[in-house]
Structures are given as structure tokens and as C-alpha cells.
Amino acid sequence: MNERLLSSEEVILKDYSVPNPSWSKDLRLLYDQYMKKCEDGSWKRLPSYRDVAVQETEDFKNFFHGYRCLDLSWHFSHTCFSCAHPDSKLIKEEQMPQARVFIRSYEDGLGFEFVMFHNDVEKKTVCLFQGGPYLQGLSGWLHGGAMATMIDITSGMAASIGERIVTANLNIDFKRPVPLYSVVVINSQLYKAEGRKLFVSCDVRSVDGKTLYAEATSEKLPLSFFWLICKAGS
């Protein structure tokens, strides 16, 4: 097999939610603690990839419990967007190989280092997050936009119900800045559902839980429902 092709495939299929040398002691310790919780099946680690199609396939398998067939989930992830997105034909196919999942677009240790764990019974998702040097805002501090991104992603995973979720509304109350390179714990929970609307609460705390960095609430919508609203308003 062509070495370049093999290398490319390895990058696409690489799970970035497992420890790498850039992870701090705190991040590794928390990872081990949550992996221990996964042993009885109450929690599960959520794999994370650079390639959008691979990520959507994994999300589908994780949250659509009635269907475990890889072929079916692959078909779903490749077709649902083109069917639901009214402007999908405007996306050029030749541009797609260059596309990456935003939060996995940096090399190890430079940007978003994180792992998520999900409890389906409690409708909770916990994200263990370490911000790298490319996410700096003010000198020595994590950029607020980077923190908002992780809050958005984590709350979205808490609301996942077997299809792609989009954010309709996100409100964040920043309490204090997060030091660059530090580890924070993002706790997110689905607390209410009204029709197709899903409501999620979230807080960001230090490793010991004593420091509150941010609180947030978010309204999520299934992607298919979101496009129906867009079409109705056009």
C-alpha cells in the first residue's frame, strides 16, 4: 500500500481523545478516574477525530443505540447533511479533503486537548479540557472564544439524541479567566426538552472543583428540524 495513503488514513482514523505526551499530570489523572467509571458501563468515553465523516459516524454509533451496524452509520453520516442542508451543493468536493473538525485542527499540545465522557442515563457529559498556547487571548490566559467553543461542543454532546445537533442559543456568564495550559472540568447536563428543543446547563470548574470559571445555558435543535425552520423562514 502507498505509504502516503497509509499515513493519511492513520491520521483520519486516529482517536485524539486518548492521552498524548502533551497531557499534564492533572489531565491524565482525571482521565484515569473517568475511565474507571466506564468499567461498569454507566459512563463511556467519546472518541474524537479530525475527519468530519469519521466523527459523525462515531457519534451516530454512540448515541443511536438501536443501530450498531457500521455500514448503516457510515451511510447516515454521509447522507444526512446533503439531504438536510439546502446549500450543500455549494460545497465543492475538492475542498473537502482539506476540511478538519475545528477543535482537532491543531497538532498535539498546541490547541484543544480534551476528552469527553458521557452518562446516557443521567444525560450528562463531562469534558476534561487543557488549553494550549495557540488558544491564548490576553497574555497567559485562555481566549474566551476557545472556552466558549468547548462549552458549546460539550453541551451539544449532552443533548445528542442520535442525530446531529446545532446550537440555537448559547448564553455564557464568565466568572474569571482560565490560565493557559491549566486543566478545567466542563460539566454539562440536559435538563429539559420541549418538543424538538433541548435545553442544557453547563459549568466550568477547576480540577478540585473549588474555582468556578463560567456558567452557561444552551438551547439545541436537531439539524433536520433546524433546516425546516430555516426553510419556513425563507
UniProtKB/TrEMBL annotation:
Known EC number: 3.1.2.2
Superkingdom: Eukaryota
Entry's Gene Ontology cellular component terms: mitochondrial inner membrane; mitochondrial intermembrane space; ruffle membrane
MF terms in GO: hydrolase activity
Compartments, record wording: Cell projection, Ruffle membrane; Cytoplasm; Mitochondrion inner membrane; Mitochondrion intermembrane space
Pfam families with a match to the protein in the record: 4HBT
Family (UniProt): Belongs to the THEM4/THEM5 thioesterase family.
Major enzyme class: hydrolase
Protein name as annotated: Acyl-coenzyme A thioesterase THEM4
InterPro entries in UniProt: HotDog_dom_sf (IPR029069), THEM4/THEM5_acyl-CoA_thioest (IPR052365), Thioestr_dom (IPR006683)
Gene3D superfamilies for this protein: Hotdog Thioesterase
Keywords from the UniProt entry: Apoptosis, Cell membrane, Cell projection, Cytoplasm, Fatty acid metabolism, Hydrolase, Lipid metabolism, Membrane, Mitochondrion, Mitochondrion inner membrane, Transit peptide
Membrane-topology annotation of the record: Peripheral membrane protein
Biological process annotations from GO: apoptotic process; fatty acid metabolic process
Domain annotation Thioesterase: ranges: 140-211
Keyword Membrane (UniProt): yes
PANTHER family according to UniProt: ACYL-COENZYME A THIOESTERASE THEM4
Leader sequence residues: none
Catalytic activity: octanoyl-CoA + H2O = octanoate + CoA + H(+); decanoyl-CoA + H2O = decanoate + CoA + H(+); hexadecanoyl-CoA + H2O = hexadecanoate + CoA + H(+); dodecanoyl-CoA + H2O = dodecanoate + CoA + H(+)
Principal subcellular localization: membrane
